[in-house]
Write the structure tokens for this entry.
Amino acid sequence: MKIKLRVWRQENSKAKGKFVKYELDGVDPEMSFLEMLDALNEKLIKEDKDPVAFENDCREGICGSCGLYINGYPHGKGNKIATCQLHMRVFKDGDTITIEPWRSQGFPVLKDLIVDRNAFDKIMSAGGFVSIDAGQAPDANSIWVPKENADKAFDAAACIGCGACVAACKNSSAMLFVAAKVSQLALLPQGKAEAKRRALNMVAKMDELGFGSCTNTGACEAECPKGISIENIARLNREYLSASFSEPE
Amino acid sequence: MSRFFTSSIGQKFFMSITGIFLMLFLLVHLSVNSLLLVGDGELFNVAANFMGSNFIMKIIEPILALGLILHIFYATYITLKNQKARPQNYQVMNRSKADWAAKNMFILGGLILIFLVIHLGNFFWHVKFGTVDPISYNGGKEIHDLYSLVSGLFINWWWYDVIYILGAVFLFLHLTHGFWSAFQTLGWNNDKWIKRLKVIAYIYAIIIAGGFATIPAYFLIKYVV
């Protein structure tokens, strides 16, 4: 397969970036998208050119580092996949693929396709944890958790913090991420004690870091590689509103 | 609590509350207006004059105006802020699956506002500044002949019928998203209710927009065509 690429190249966070066109021959349909980029970089290195910087680690859809905006879709077109799980077989010979970094005030571009997702860590530091040592796994049924809550908390905890929700949202809102991180604890007894403070502080941090606000378009849910539901956003709203009207500040 | 008013969720809370208030108003407005389609207009005149003159409505009217102003104010503020959240846009347009209405609520709201200005100029202005002809039924008290004002407009100027039907179309699209979105923002939602509320949103939008569009369509078909 022969593929035409338009890749965002940017020297550093202060430089003005631009799209650069590349042509890549001999692309195997069995390759993953990242393997295709590896092939491009090998070619660039052989030509003594600067390889394209992109973030990646596990390459099996669980680390959340490989986010790329491909032809108008975060992580490319496909249901519940990260960029590493996108394969070249979905493209045709001669296709042009445009690759951009996540675009958001909260995610400044560091180099080429790599963005700084530190904002998510800052939001987590604001309250996305349980302050006590939860200790060893307790005896079964010593703490009662309804099965439904356990399932929902587990679904929320599937969030890998890749930032596709921010990338997909027209307002570049981080609500789905924050909602997942608040929900995974709010539904469990260990998370209840700090639930109010958590919701207030994490939302305040999210606002402070320049993410937009949620207008319920649902684009985040459609693009989330882990299928996190916007039901969690409703829960975050609930948690935040009840905390605002009760917690003395 | 002080942070609530400036937080993103707090601002959306006001969008939601004012939105629900305006949606309730639309129901009341349509139920009175539907009387335009019944009989020779006496029923509508009596109902509309009652709504315009009773004590409770006099209190609700400024609250309604305030609700509308807050809804517009927060919509503008949030939209401007959200645009700043992505200083550099994508080269390839976002193709992520999302309802067209959901992505264009501000534009739809702006179109509805333009319609509203025309609408208030057509009726509200005339009522407030007393240029409406009086009428009395069975020798009773003189009341505003609002039926003639409305029917006159729709019969004599066909393009107003078109404007009012267009206004209803914009309202329909705005409500299909606004209705369920209001509940989502209040946190009154879950996986089951998202689907249900979206269906109810369409039913509500069809009743409201369909109802309002029927009135100019009725006069257009009965008297003009």
